[in-house]
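Example for tutorial group B:
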C-alpha cells in the first residue's frame, strides 16, 4: 500500500490492526461518536472482532486508522464497506474518536486521503455514504472532500423513537 499522508493537516492513514480494537470500541461507545451513527447500539469487543473476521479479513471492508504525523497517535478511523467488485463501488464511513481532533479539518483531510486510496488502489469508480440529515457538520466536511448530495430519504431510520432523514452522498472517479 502506498503512503497516504497530508502534511498540512498533520495526518496519515495506516491499516487498522487487531491491536486497535480497544481504542475503536471506546470511541464508538462515546456519546459524541455514537450519536452520529445510524446504528447506535452499544459496540463491543466481540462485535469488533467479528467485524474483523467476517468483513475485513474477507475483503468486504478496508478500515484504516487516522494518525497524527507528529507522534503517530490514532485519532479516528475511516473505512469502506460493502465493497462491490462487479460495480466498482463501496460505502464510506468515518469517525473522529479523539475530542481534540474534531473541528480541525482532519475529517475532510482523511476523507480525501481515503478517496485517493479507493480510486488509486481499489480501482473503485464510485464511493457513497449515508449521513443523518441533522449532522450538518459532517455534510459540510463531506462536500469539502468532494462528495455531492444525491438524495434525501425522508423518515428513513428510527432513532430513540424518532424518525430521521438520511442524506445519500457520493463521489464518482473522474476519468
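The residue assignment follows.
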Amino acid at each position: 500500500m502506498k503512503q497516504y499522508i497530508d502534511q498540512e493537516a498533520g495526518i496519515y492513514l495506516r491499516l487498522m490492526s487487531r491491536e486497535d480494537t480497544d481504542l475503536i470500541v471506546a470511541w464508538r461507545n462515546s456519546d459524541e461518536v455514537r450519536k452520529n451513527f445510524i446504528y447506535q447500539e452499544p459496540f463491543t469487543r466481540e462485535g469488533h472482532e467479528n467485524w474483523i473476521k467476517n468483513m475485513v479479513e474477507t475483503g468486504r471492508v478496508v478500515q484504516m486508522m487516522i494518525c497524527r504525523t507528529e507522534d503517530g497517535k490514532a485519532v479516528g478511523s475511516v473505512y469502506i464497506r460493502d465493497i462491490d467488485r462487479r460495480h466498482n463501488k463501496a460505502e464510506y464511513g468515518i469517525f473522529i474518536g479523539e475530542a481534540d481532533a474534531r473541528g480541525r479539518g482532519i475529517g475532510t483531510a482523511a476523507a480525501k486521503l481515503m478517496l485517493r486510496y479507493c480510486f488509486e488502489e481499489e480501482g473503485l469508480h464510485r464511493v457513497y455514504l449515508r449521513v443523518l440529515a441533522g449532522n450538518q457538520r459532517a455534510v459540510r466536511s463531506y462536500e469539502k472532500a468532494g462528495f455531492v448530495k444525491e438524495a434525501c430519504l425522508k423518515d428513513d431510520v428510527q432513532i430513540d423513537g424518532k424518525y430521521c432523514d438520511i442524506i445519500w452522498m457520493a463521489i464518482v472517479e473522474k476519468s
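The chain has a mean pLDDT of 95. Compare this with the pattern of hydrophobic and polar residues in the output above.
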